[in-house]
Structures are given as C-alpha cells and as structure tokens.
Design goal:
By secondary structure, the chain is of the alpha+beta class. It has helices spanning about 1-10, 40-45, 50-65, and strands spanning about 20-25, 30-35, 70-75. A hairpin with a 4-residue loop joins β1 and β2 (about 30-35). The two termini are about 25 Å apart.
Length: about 80
Amino acid sequence: MKDVVELIAKALVDNPDDISILEKEDEKGLLVELRVLEGDMGRVIGKQGRTAKAIRTIVKAAGLKQGKHVWVDIDVKS
C-alpha cells in the first residue's frame, strides 16, 4: 500500500522528495501515514477534502482486494 500512496502523493505535491510514508500494521488492519510539507497540504487534501477522500478510497479498495483493512492518515511533516 505504501507504493500506491507514494505514487499518488508524488504526482500531487510540489516537493515530491519531502514526503514521508509510514506503515503500521496491527490486528485491526494497516495504517498508512502520509506526511507532507505544510505548503503541499492543500494539494493533497483538495477542495472540501475531495482529493484526500479519493486517495483513501483507492487505497481502501486496493487493500480489500488483498484482504486487508487499510486506513490513510494525512498529516503535516514536522
């Protein structure tokens, strides 16, 4: 899942080298944390959160195909 999120995020942001993606797996499923610079946050979120929702939908569908529950968390990189 990390590769899917990375591919999408790098296409959206102005600074593709400054994103970081972490995966955390537990008994509930897989959490993918996407961290971007503050200036790129608007591009990843989109108007009224549409882009973020689309990213989450794509990743969730890919995860279900593999039999996993996947969540995407988007945050500002510090």
